[in-house]
Structure prediction request, 194 residues.
Amino acid sequence: MVEEHTWLRKSSWNEKDEYYTPPILVDAILPYLKEGSTIWCPFDTEHSEFVLRLSEAGFKVIYSHIWRGQDFFNYEPDEEYDYIVSNPPFTKKLDVFQRLYDLKKPFAMVMGLPILNYQQVGSFFCDKQNDGKNLQLLIVDKKVSFDGNTASFNNSYFCWNVLENDIIFHHLEHNNSRTNHTPSQMSKDAGDYI
Ligand SMILES: C[S@@+](CC[C@H](N)C(=O)[O-])C[C@H]1O[C@@H](n2cnc3c(N)ncnc32)[C@H](O)[C@@H]1O
Prediction:
């Protein structure tokens, strides 16, 4: 598997997309997902904290990743699933959101709140709202660190058809920096695949 998709792996590699979600941020979405659901994680390997934590919490998890030749823009699992949950590549964010809406499944995606500052992003979600598909936000009350250093912005969940209210604030015990830092186990995969 690792040898098969060398070209795809290298051509799709962008440093800005390789940030791996720590467990504390994955845990924030767990209470909002219906028990017994099947969840597709489309930007994830077996070591992704989405795959690990959602499985531990009793959900059935399907995962895929471009490193395995599964390009989110033209791949969908054969199995039935209820939600799409992950942290997508930042550089392809609007294409990712468009594809998510096209797939017509409830989704929850980690994304930096500063993207709401872009007019293009505002217009995109304004159009969706006019189609009755309004964006929902699960906003965590800490700026979660991915690398152990103080984070400069808030990463939260951009959702559709998942939350009971369109904005929910969610408390986290800490921001995952310094002595509280627990990294994602997916970090070790990048070296294996590239
Ligand atoms: C921000 S990282 C997050 C990884 C993981 N979901 C997590 O939260 O730890 C996004 C991942 O999506 C992968 N990716 C980029 N383009 C993709 C595509 N078209 N299809 C599937 N995965 C892709 C990147 O290589 C990267 O590993």
